[in-house]
Amino acid sequence: MNQYILDNQIKNQYDMLPSGWTFFGLVTGKAELYSGYTTNLKARLHFLENKAREGGIYGELWSQVESVHWLSFPTALEALLHYKCHLQNSSPEYQYRLLPFSDYAYLGLDSARFPFISIQEHTNDDWLYVGPFRSRFFLADVLDTYARILKLPACETSNYPCAKFDTGQCRGWCLHLAPAQESASEHDLEKLDALLKEAFVHPANGILELVEQQKNAYFDELEFEKASLLEDELSLLHKYRDWLNFLYVAKDLHYDSDTLQIRQGRIAFCRYLDKDYHFPVENTQYRENEALALNLDSVDESRIVYEYLKNLNPSEIQES
Predict the structure, then answer these.
(1) What residue ranges of the chain have pLDDT lower than 50?
(2) Which of 46, 96, 113, 178 is 20 to 30 Å from the Cα of 4, by its Cα?
(3) Domain end: 34, 59, 89, which one?
């Protein structure tokens, strides 16, 4: 295994670390403190170092780290398998005290409850949940994009109606909850329910294609500056659709071979380095409103499994 001694006196000390899929361990002396897998070891160490500045458990861990050990792998699945098998043979002190998925977030939808669209930390309430997503910032950008295109709620205050209704940026759906407010605006909550599900739940909703048509129209009219402004929105919508396609099938991913068994999008068995490993797969009982929601601690593994099976046999992964 490769080793690098950490030294804060060295500027850009992580630049010599490899890119690509990597299993890594944070070590003090001969004791391993924490291990993980990542596609960008440099970025992961920067993240851990920045979190350590906030103190708490990350600060406690980082204050002890003397070196990082790593192994590079050609694929995400191989890095994941090594990580899971390693943890069956080792128990790093901080392994289950850090929760790398704690900043992930769910999208919550409810056409009968203000603010109608929310970013949630868990799925314990009665919203219609989608996710989790690895970045709250990404999710917030998606909400802003759909609000602009469809004039869906993007409420930033608990008071309603707000300035966005006054400036025409929102159709004023909240007025249905405040019947004393006189308005000629269309704010039927049944229509809002359909729009929310069309925009955020159905991958093939046509909105991405609508933006692409608008971009092409700008190009045809030689309005290149306007066309370039839509590039970020298109990238965002592509990523959201891709993640939604993943969530639709993640719980139903199954696979069997002599060396690998997958159940419900999780690795249940593998033969690795001539040794058999078995892993528990939780049989989570999801509620109806969690149909597109995965557990926070399973989403990263399920995503790697999804990509592996999609590349192995694309015809078995149906996407919209």
Answers:
(1) 183, 185, 320
(2) 96
(3) 89
Tokens standing for residue 283? 């049989």
Please tell me what DSSP assigns to residue 113. Answer: S
Structure tokens at 121: 């930390």
Residue 34, strand partner residues: 26
Q: Is residue 299 part of a domain?
A: yes
Amino acid letter, residue 83: Y
How confident is the model over 187-217, as pLDDT tens digits? 577 888 888 898 899 988 777 787 777 777 7
Angstrom distance (rounded) from CA 251 to CA 94: 29
Give the amino acid at 105.
A
Q: Note whether 299 and 78 are within 8 A (CB).
A: no
The answer to whether the CB of 73 falls within 8 A of the CB of 22 is yes
Q: Which residue has the tokens 């992961």?
A: 44
What is the identity of the amino acid at 292? Answer: L
Query: CATH no. for residue 63?
Result: 3.40.1440.10
Q: Nearest-CA neighbor of 139 among 107, 91, 184, 182?
A: 107
| Cα–Cα distance, 224 to 202 (Å, whole number) | 31
Rounded distance between C-alpha atoms, residue 245 and residue 256, angstroms: 22
Instruction: Dig out the tokens for 140 from the structure.
Output: 């917030």
